[in-house]
Automatic annotation (TrEMBL):
This is Membrane-bound metal-dependent hydrolase. Keywords: Membrane, Transmembrane, Transmembrane helix. InterPro entries: YdjM-like. The chain crosses the membrane at residues 65-82, 129-147. Pfam families: YdjM.
């Protein structure tokens, strides 16, 4: 998924799943945790611009099992400081892995196992994928705005 979709999905989990923790600071921390996983795409930006997509080769070992474990360790350490902070970070980081697994070909157990898993919940063609991502991102954006308004964090 695109970075905006990852940010919105993580925030929606927080807003709808734990509204008592949905403070402006926690929403920002949640987004950072959700999109930090994609930092490994930066070296592949040139190729992605030319081909109009990121492939599995743009993902480092930190984008799969090792990254998930590191995210969980960071969440546990943050929980020792503040249980709420740990949960906010965990929701953001795990949501990224979940959304990628649900919508893209991924190697969830890499580097232990190089098997690619694709749940076929999104189209593979570039045109279909663009439409899918756009509709899903806009839908999540509308629900996000509605949720912020409902919690009094934004006045529409």
């Amino acid at each position: 998924m695109n970075t905006i979709a990852h940010a919105l999905f993580a925030n929606l989990l927080l807003l709808l799943g734990a509204p008592e923790m949905a403070t402006p600071a926690n929403l920002v921390i949640n987004v950072v945790a959700a999109v930090a996983v994609d930092l490994d795409h930066i070296p592949s930006l040139g190729k992605a611009v030319r081909t109009l997509r990121f492939g599995q080769s743009s993902r480092s070992r930190w984008h799969e099992l090792q990254g998930l474990l590191v995210s969980m360790i960071i969440s546990v350490l943050a929980t020792l400081y503040s249980p709420e902070l740990g949960r906010v970070i965990l929701m953001g980081s795990v949501s990224h892995y979940f959304l990628d697994l649900a919508t893209r070909p991924t190697r969830p157990l890499y580097p232990l196992n190089d098997v690619t898993v694709f749940l076929e919940m999104a189209p593979m063609s570039l045109r279909g994928l663009f439409a899918y991502d756009t509709v899903l991102t806009v839908t999540m954006g509308v629900i996000w705005l509605w949720s912020l308004n409902g919690l009094g964090l934004l006045r529409l």
